[in-house]
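Researcher: We're teaching a course module on how sequence relates to structure. For the next exercise, students receive a sequence and then see the predicted structure as C-alpha cells, so they can try to spot secondary structure elements on their own. Here is the exercise chain.
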Amino acid sequence: MVLSIVIVYELLSVVGVGLLIRVLAKRRGESEDFVTANRSLSAPVIGVTLGLTYLGSLHVFGVMELAWDIGFAAIWVSVAHVAMICVICLASGRWVRKLRVATVPQMIEQLFGKRVRVATSCANAMVVFGMLTMEAQAIGIVLSTLTPLSIQASAVIGGVIGLFYVLFAGMKEIGIINLINTVVMFSGLIVTGLTLGGYLPNGWEGVQAYYETSAQLDKLSVLGNPAVIIAFGIPTLISTVFSQGINQQGLQVMMAAKSERTVYKSLPWAAIINGSFTIFTVGIGVAALSIPELQALGAKVGGPMLIVNYLPPWLVAWLCAGFLGALLSTFATNVMAPATLFIKDIYVTCSGSKDSEAEQAKKIRITIVVLGVISIISSFFLPEMVAGANWLFSFLVPIFWVAVYGLFWKTSKKAAEVTLFGTWIINLIWSFTPLPAALGMEGVLNSYITLACSLVIGVVANLALPGGEALFKTMKAKKAEALAAAE
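Model: And here is the predicted structure for the students to work with:
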C-alpha cells in the first residue's frame, strides 16, 4: 500500500506537470529550451530547484549513514552546502548568467580557449556522473525499504522513473515539480520531527541513555570533537564550496534564471530548504544506532528501516514520497548536466558539428538515457556516500580558482593548464600512492591538498606566465566604450 502511494504520487507529478507544461507552451506558441527553459525561471523556482538539486543522496541517506560514525557532527554536510549556495547565488551563478552560457566549460573557453574547455568538461562530467551513481543508489535504498527487492533491483526501477522525470519536459518541469516536492517533503519532515520520539522504543531518553552508557556522548554534539572537525568538517567545507560552486550541476539551474538579480534573490529559498534538511535526517541516523535490531542491519539501511519499521504507514508514505522526489530531482539535474557537457562541450567542440539547438537537444536526450543506464549499473558497487563525494569534489577545486583568476585577474591559457593538470596529477598521486604515509600526512585529506595546489600553483603560474586582461575588465571596458560612442 505504501509503495503504491509513493509510485502513484511520483508518476502523477512527473507526467502531469510534463503534460501541463507542453500544453501551455503549445497554446502560447513557445518552443521550449530543454536545457535552460528559455532563461525564464523566477527566484522561488530557481531557489527551490537549487536547494533540491543539492538535496540528494548525501542529505537523505548519506548523513544517516555518516551519523553512525560521527553523530550530529554530520550536520557539517549542510553547513558546507549552505556556504556553497551562498557562493553560487552571490558569485558564480551570477557570472554564468551574465555571460549567458549554457555550460561552465563555455565560460572557461571564453577565458582560456578550447583545449582548457575540453579538459574542464571531462572533469565536470566525471564528477557529476560519480554523484549520479550515488543518487541511483539512494533511490534504490528508498524503494528497497518498501519492498522485498534488493537495493540493486530497486535502483533499476527508480532509475527508470528518474529518466522519465528529466526526459519528459526538461528543465522547466524539474523546476515546477521541485516546488511540489518541497511542500510534500518538508511538511512530512516537520511532522516526523515533532512525533518521532513517541515512536521510538524508549523515546529520546532511550537514545540519550545509549550514548551515555556506550561512552559516545560526543556524537550528540554538533561540533563533535576537534579531530572530527579537522578530519571531516573543514575538508567537507573546502571541497563542497570550491567544487560545487563551479559545478555544472548547480550552475545548470542558474543558467535558466530570468536575470542576474533573480539569481541573487533565490539565495534565501535555496539556503533555507537545503540547510534545514539534515537536522531531521541526522536525527534519524543517530536514533537508529541506539536500537539493537537496527544496529544489526548496518549504517547504510539502519536509518531508512527506522522510518519503515517504527513510523505509521501514512507517515512512511508521506516521507518516502518526499525523499524519492528529492532524489529524483537530483538524479534529473545530475544526468542532464553531464549529458549537456558531453554534447555541447565535447561532441560539438571536438567534431565541429553545426547541429541546431533542436538537434543538440535530441542528442542530449539520447545521452541522458545512456548515462542513466550506466549510472544504475555502477551504483551496485558504491562506497560510503559522503567520503566518495568529497573525493570526487576535490577534482573541481582547481577549476573554481582558475575561473576566478581568468575573470578577475588574468587570462593566461598556459597558467590555467599548469594549474589544472598540476593539481589533478598531485591529487591522483595523493590518492593512489604511499606518498602521504611516507610524509607522515595520512590524515591530510584531498580537499586540503587540492586547495593548497590551486592557490600556490595558480598564483605562481599566473605571475610567471604571460596572459591577457581579465574577462570582466575587458567587458567593462567595452561597455564603457559603447556608451561613450552612443553619446
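Model: If you want an answer key for the exercise: The chain has 23 helices and two strands. The CA atoms of residues 94 and 261 lie 8 Å apart.
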